Automatic annotation (TrEMBL):
Pfam families: CCG, FAD-oxidase_C, FAD_binding_4, Fer4_8. SUPFAM superfamilies: alpha-helical ferredoxin (SSF46548), FAD-binding/transporter-associated domain-like (SSF56176), FAD-linked oxidases, C-terminal domain (SSF55103). Residues 549-579 form the 4Fe-4S ferredoxin-type domain. This is FAD/FMN-containing dehydrogenase.
Amino acid sequence: MTGFVEHLRAAVEGDVLAAPGDRALYSVDASNYRHVPAAVVRPRSVDGVVAAVAVAVEHGVPVTNRGAGTSVAGNSAGAGLVIDFSRYLDRVISVDPVEQVAVVQPGVVLDRLNDAARPHGLVFGPDPSTRSRCTLGGMIGNDACGAHSVAWGKTSDNVRALDVLLADGRRFDTRTPPPLDLPEVDPAWFPALDRRVSGYRLDALPDLTRALVGSEGTCATVLGATVRLVQAPPRRVLAVLGFDGPYDAADLAPQLRELDVLTIEGLNAELARAAGESRRLLPRGESWLFVEAAEDSVAHLAAALAPHSVVVTDPARQRALWRVREDGAGLATRMADGGEAWSGWEDAAVPPERLGAYLREFDALLAGHGRRGVTYGHYGEGCLHVRIDFDFRRGHRSFLQDAADLVVAHGGSLSGEHGDGQARSELLPRMYPPAAIEAFARFKAAFDPGNRMNPGRIVAPAKLDDDLRVLVAPPVIPTRAKLALRADGGDLAAATRRCVGVGKCLNTSGGVMCPSYRVTKEEKHSTRGRARLLFEMLGGQVVRGGWRSEEVRDALDLCLGCKGCKRDCPVDVDMATYKAEFLHHHYRGRVRPAAHYSMGWLPLWLRLRLVNGLTARLGRFGGVAPERPLPTPVRSFQSRFAGRGGGGDRVLLFPDTFTNHFEPGVGFDAAAVLGHAGQAVEVPRGAVCCGLTWFSTGQLDVARRVVRRTARVLRPWTRDGVPVVGLEPSCTAFLRSDAVEVAGDDPDVVRLAESVRTFAEHVSPLLEPVAGAARAVVQPHCHQYAELGLDADRELLAKAGVSASVLAGCCGLAGNFGFERGHYDVSMAVGEQTLFPAVRAADADTAVVADGFSCRTQVRHGSDAEPVHTATLLRRRLGL
């Protein structure tokens, strides 16, 4: 393929990627299938797309078009040339509020289109749960729908025209096509069903636009689209209906279609349980419907039809409830017992009035095959989503065949919105008569007679049980982790399979995940990309070298270790932990980067008093970024603290390295507040450290020794049940969670983890409300966000009379990350996303609160503000 790649580089305006790591990143989408491409092109212009397709055709290489890569049917992974539209061809060209249409490039993200339409009171109707990252091109390829199709239909109902390119180089507007040899069509071939997405939509002819929507890139390449916009409701009311039986929600759903509703979504008890604490937002029940309406009266009418219900008008609470449903594709990938569940039969649709009966028979089918599944979906349109605990080696094909026969018996469609891809194309003859299958072949041949466009999908299908990634790329190196990886039984391979590719880490706003991707927009810097590279590293076919892999090392280099993914990823991928595991193996028995010695061992150097003003200025020799001024240690908090409090309850203040040696004032402020609250404050005299700096640099053996020693030092307090209050969120989070990953077999470590509390968790219940008012901008530490939560902090600040604006996103420094050579630009760019603008915009009398030492340091390096710890702000508010 060398000549092909060189030809691409000479002809295409854009990025041509052919390195092993790049090909590995694009080898899968969000499906079960794996196809390693020969090359990937990210064109910068439409002309670049035209040139790339021409080169591929000249070399006999098939073409697969790709948006965000969130297809769960295997529509967007191919073994030839993959064209990624999401990187550059991502613009909204125009919005016409009078005609209510928009012209878009295929790589534009749905949320971005809606951002452009919203000022005109308009919205694009179809809205998949992946709307924050899915592209219009991908939606057109699959005929995507989403929750609001009850009101606004599928993508095919909302596209006015397509600008398409054929493999032979012809380009045209689908409203004015050239002569094409299209097949005759019998309407009787097609079930009467709104959510019919399987096969080609030949019954839409002669409307070529609608017929090509949902063709999965098998006929033409979409270069642009004119789409219909609809009036956005001025407000939305959400009724959540709870039912006592597992099928009651499905039985009632058709009745709700008689109301003027926007959505009718369903979920079952197992998905609700997987949602964790969010489960408490739901009313009682074993199955639920989410019914959204534009009018309160309609929502209350819907609610009255269920034995248990709640009507929600608060937008924030609505978003929290919708998150349970929208994260379903991720939440459902793990069964209640931790077993893995997979896509492959995840979006069949039946007439809504048949849904209850179908769901009962489908559950019986699962049981008959010895399988389990977590179901949810678009109940108002009879579309059922499910993840199933398939055994791909036994019974996979027979189950899918039986499932196809069942849905057809109910007058349904194999796919209700995701398309056929490799998962279902082979099953189409079970849904359509031979004449229809022949017509599909003629339709494709009218556009792509050489079968260059996404072959193996819909026509002449690939086998549904070929190319399954867990079978074709099994691990070839030991996968037992050094860390406990408790959620995955200590198996790194299982941990990498947590990522199913839904791509929430590609979000560019909201939450924390993934700060480095938000700066670089490179797939390898997303949580998904890193998980894929680790998977391929274990398989050894494309990413070679095992633990010595440079591709994985380079991708993880810009992982901030923020743990945002552990909180924001719907399947709890914890890339910071996987990075620590990788670094442990990668540098085992080898010289490490200088920063691993200078900053990884910083707690020891500080305790030995080897860090001072002079050595701080020599940081560049220790792998420290020359742009970063280094903090200078002062006399430690431990050496100066004489105890505080009298006969109150005992509390141990944990003297973390950063408070102890750099900002002891925070420790004194905390002690003053605790004493004011009637606590007898104690501080250990011996050296203690959580071990985080060694953990984050992959020096796991040292981290284990350090945390075990600390747990022994603190044993007199933890055995007596004395709370251990942490001030540095990263250390507190480490002691509560990661310490057990490192040394969970040590009872002292486990006891310490159970004893640790944040400052806010301990103080808030003890504090009486403070008179007066103040304002603050609050930058939460990412580790606290991921592991500990912020509820207690919000409550404490409110009690202190502080109106807090809590920021979302990482500060960018992230412990040692922002200090390491080569990371400064990315670190500061992360800070510019949320933190720095918010700090600069704050009034002079607005406090900037950041409990993390690294967060406070980043504020100082990126602004003129002087940030404070919550303990410091609270001491001031109390006048102590």
